Amino acid sequence: xxxxxxxxxxxxxxxxxxxxxxxxxxxxxxxxxxxxxxxxxxxxxxxxxxxxxxxxxxxxxxxxxxxxxxxxxxxxxxxxxxxxxxxxxxxxxxxxxxxxxxxxxxxxxxxxxxxxxxxxxxxxxxxxxxxxxxxx
Length: 136
Prior knowledge:
This protein is mostly helical.
């Protein structure tokens, strides 16, 4: 199970790297006016999102394996799973935003994306505290 836990942490970390960086690309896309630069940023965002998909799925699968293997229960686990569901929603919302950028239908400012980029940071703080401290 230690191998499963190690790979779960690796895939969660990798998935979060994408969740941190993709909205930063969106900040730049929202500000970009030059077509070639926009196309380059869009390609970067598309490749990153495609790369993030299997990272998320592997992180979730390994997390489920750990949960079933250890049989962990408690209020902290319910709170953590709620946050994981929010992270999955955030991930898919990033995909929706990518489709809007691809269709050049973005209506949001770069400042909105700067704030949007902070959501996974806050969720990561909360998840780590719940897992390590187990406050309830």
